[in-house]
Amino acid sequence: MAHWLIKSEPDVYSWDQLVKDKQTRWDGVRNYAARIHLRAMKKGDQLFFYHSNKGMEIVGVGAVLREAYPDPTSTGDAWVAVDVKPVKKILKPVSLEQIKKEKKLAGMALVRLGRLSVQPVTDEEWNMVMKMGGMEA
Fold first, then answer.
1. How far is Cα 38 from Cα 34, in angstroms, rounded to an integer?
2. Mind listing the pLDDT tens digit for each residue in 9-51?
3. Are 6 and 26 in contact (CB under 8 A)?
4. What is the pLDDT of residues 69-124, one digit of tens each?
5. Which of 87, 95, 110, 114 has the most CB atoms around its CB within 10 Å?
6. CB atoms within 10 A of CB 76
7. Buried (b) or exposed (e) across 16-52, using 16+ Cβ within 10 A?
């Protein structure tokens, strides 16, 4: 099973909204690198839900419900969407500042490629962030 991180501005689509909705289509991604990651996601993969711009912290754990399919918000076949669901809220949200201070997370895509909206997370990074958030990996 792979791990991922998806980003959303909380005033556009928040963790609380995902919990309320119970699942959502993750669409509208128009970045080639992020598209590669969406295409690589498999049903059951776990993901971090990150609030970008406001908050700038990992707030929840979700899972992939449906693998990549044509994004209905796109006019062609170039872009894809996946369906995701919430699994659990992070007990102690993990801020970007905390992540940047942890030397073991220096190579994390969130630190290196800050603007990328969909990114992979290694098993080691996953376990470290879960621990920082007061969660069991």
1. 6
2. 999 999 999 999 999 999 999 999 999 999 999 999 999 999 9
3. yes
4. 999 999 888 999 999 999 999 999 999 999 999 999 999 999 999 889 999 999 99
5. 110
6. 7
7. eebbeeeebbbbebeeeebbebbeebeeebbbbbbbb
